[in-house]
Amino acid sequence: MKVRNCWEIKKCGREPDGAKVPEFGVCPAAEEHRADGINGGVNGGRACWAVAGTFCGGKVQGEFASKLDNCMSCNFYESVVEEQWPNYTGSAQILAKVDP
Question: What pTM was estimated for this model as a whole?
Fold first, then answer.
């Protein structure tokens, strides 16, 4: 099964060359090379909940701690956990790589 990254599912327009890049910039998850391969994604595309500055609910989100509740109830997050289980890489492991 081919997995998809957050920008492919959420259609935020902040992927490289995306429609909203001129207004909001490229999403940090799309550029987070330290998260490449986590949960099968490209860069932080399947670890977006642990990357600061992602786009959700029509606005740019802040640091991990301030966006945690939103992300844990996100349908994309839930699908990554389900698809990757039992090999899911969780927030603590992701943060250790992207926010050392």
Answer: 0.90
Distance CA 90, CA 34 (A): 15
Please give the Cα distance from 91 to 3 (Å, whole number). Answer: 19
Neighbours of 68 (CB within 10 A): 14
Q: What is the pLDDT of residues 38-88, one digit of tens each?
A: 999 999 999 999 998 887 777 777 777 777 788 888 999 999 999 999 999
As a whole number of angstroms, the distance between CA 61 and CA 17 comes to: 20
Contacts of 39 (CB under 8 A, 6+ apart): 3, 46, 47, 80, 83, 84, 88, 89
